[in-house]
User: Fold these one by one.
Assistant:
Number 1:
Amino acid sequence: MSTTDGVAALAAEGLGKRYKRGWALQNCTFELPRGRVSALVGPNGAGKSTLMALATGLLTPTAGAIRVLGDSPVSSGTHPRLAFLAQDKPLYRGFTVEEMLRAGSALNQEWDHTYARGLVESAGVPFHARISTLSGGQRTRVALAMALGRRPELIVLDEPLADLDPLAREEVMQALMAEVAETGMTVLLSSHVLADLEGICDHLLLLAGGRVRLAGDVEDLLAGHRLMIGPSQGAESRFPDEIVVESRSTQRQATVLVRGHAPAVMPGWEAHEPTLEELAMAHLRSARPAAGQGATAEVAAA
Ligand SMILES: Nc1ncnc2c1ncn2[C@@H]1O[C@H](COP(=O)(O)OP(=O)(O)OP(=O)(O)O)[C@@H](O)[C@H]1O
């Protein structure tokens, strides 16, 4: 039995990181549950990569603390039960896939060669092919096998689907989900593409401008909001300010995302549960600073 049972996979308290140019992350407090798939979402410059670098011990916090599987990252280095797949998927381009896997075996104390090989084989990637000749999707599958070969309890993936076509994206996610179902490991993955995460992640961490804007179980978050659609005339005054996350209007129709349940009887209005994309986009737009003031909400809608 693991010594970390019952402990959050990742826990941050008042976490902050300041670079020379200013704060990239500030006052972040959250917990990611174990055995679940958590999505880290946010616009460009939100602080996602910085947060991942703090979790993997590549950076040290300027303020607050982060705990990985119950442990504080010590001085430097990645937690032994955490695997990290960086955005540029570092692989030796001149190696063959077979040589890459053997390097994984030589470089890692904990390494399940049969498992890593099996992952590459099931992806249909030829063992004798050079890394430089693989397609983006094949390279991702090899990089994933290299990370999973360490049999991590927590895997952190920085935009694993960027640069992949929709078919390859689906294949990579299916392969990852199959491993999650089989091993019960915890996944934290960042993505700009919210549509990729719908139905896959069960926990959300939404960052904007270096701060946590929304965090929690996806089902609870969706059930805790309502998207109200009704006539734009008089829409502004229909809902108390404190429950409105975002309100948008065209000439005829208003769309208002509110916290909590739909207000009782509202003739002409319909209420429905938002999708993850609608929820995240509304929170990101509402957190967007005025032009010229830092991070912009450019999360792709599809
Ligand atoms: N090494 C660094 N030195 C100075 N500033 C940095 C450094 N790395 C990141 N930043 C700044 O910190 C902020 C957060 O950057 P970060 O890369 O963590 O965001 P991100 O959410 O991963 O963005 P993206 O989606 O564009 O990759 C940005 O304003 C960025 O310019």
Number 2:
Amino acid sequence: MLLCATMHYQRVGIGLLLWSVFFTLILAPTVDARIRHYKWEVKYEFKSPDCYKKLAITINGRTPGPTIQAQQGDTVIVELKNGLVTENVAIHWHGIRQIGTPWMDGTEGVTQCPILPGDTFIYKFVVDRPGTYLYHAHYGMQREAGLYGAIRVLVPDGVKEPFSYDYDRSIILNDWYHKSTFEQAAGLSSKSFVWVGEPQSLLIQGRGRFNCLASGLQADTCNSTNPECSPYFLTVVPGKTYRLRIGSLTSLSALNFAIEGHNLTVVEADGHYVEPFVVQNLNIYSGETYSVLVRTDQDPSRNYWAATNVISRNRTTPTGLAIFNYYPNHPRRSPRTAPPTGPQWNDSDYRLAQSVAIKARQGYIIPPPLTSDRVITLLNTQNRIDGYMRWSVNNVSFTLPHTPYLIALKKNMTHVFDQTPAPENYDSASYDIFSAPKNPEATYSNSIYRLKFNSTVDIILQNANSLMNNTSETHPWHLHGHDFWVLGYGKGKFDPVNDPKKYNLVNPIMKNTVPVHSYGWTALRFRADNPGIWAFHCHIESHFYMGMGVVFEEGVERVGELPSSIMGCGETKGVYRP
Ligand SMILES: O=C1O[C@H]([C@@H](O)CO)C(O)=C1O
């Protein structure tokens, strides 16, 4: 916004100068300090990111919040003041493994008590690996109210990356709803289930465009001339190479991203270098990040559309648009061409092929262990429990305990959650993944998986038909505290005898978020080498809220003294407050 306000495109030379000054001073602070200190106030404010005015959760007045920029090995300190007045909060640092600081993962109910209104919580952690990461609320369904942002971790001085570029830019993709998260959450958790439906808009870097005129809403509620919802523009200089870091924090939608007329060379995924491959458009699932290289080699006399489209669900949300602005064209000049529409929403072969194409880059391969100590198969199903709509893994629908696991386990409060081991498998011989479940009943539990420290664990995500006939949704699964190797994807039911023979053990990419495609499976491997308690869940906001997640414990006895700042709720109340 500041950028838009400061640009005067008639004076091109000054414009370019202002640009570089802006980027040097504001977007790219110097990288010699080892501590990155941020002071944030989280608040509700009226915002109109897609022209429709609603309450959004902001950080220092902004959504998306400020970008955290650091260098590998730096310590990030975020002093977070909860100014929400009547609501708790917690922030998760998505993709940061929190080695040695599992209590800073920001996952309410798992690693910490929520931060109370008026309280200030200090998050402090090391960013140990370069790459593109995200942060977002991890309490209730707050993420979709706008509490999110980007983390950019640069390589140390003197270290060269395996590709070159002239400029480094970041954008976050999102979907946007007009109903409040409270109304949505209440609908999802009532017996007369109300589904959140498809989002009203798609946002690029916090901006979208809802059709106010067609909606018939009054101008004080929806105003297309509001500068808050003028399209985001990314100004580029012709003849250069841009590294574009793209993250998705959608609540529901899988997206396809494209820049009209430009190829994208994929070079990074979730902080790992990718063996470069060229696409015309990129599929990106909630919780994933990518870096792509874009060469500004097209006709420089015009602007181009950058566009997001919904994939994998029947698309009703209009295309999300931003302007890829070739300097010195005016950044508000909309291209006269039609924006990219991406692939057909239901082209699952296309999506599977792109997932399979993502491999670790030669020279940067971290070889996976060739065998694993344990295989956990997780059947993804939609269920009904006592008339409530839920999602489950192996017929168990996850609920969060009131006392966070990390504190409960460290302080031997075993009575606060179900001690039965979570189920290792499902009845794969008799279960038909291609039909709606015969018996949709499931059980609630907050039981967890306890992993042997330093063991190698395989996870088979097995997708299935939901409660609706001929429907199997795509679920992006995100693991806290680790990166996993993506060993393979397949269609249909996983075959435990033959499919492992086809695993990629040569150059699998490591990621922290991965899709399981409809009616398919995805196989992951990770080492349980990070002492702590870690959530693994579907990154669709409403699905996790409806029980689609599990929790792993590993080496909790090795976790150091817990800070008292994470306590104060449930059984920890009073006892551990200083
Ligand atoms: O959880 C969900 O519920 C709806 C639908 O299955 C029932 O309305 C949907 O599309 C989901 O992803």
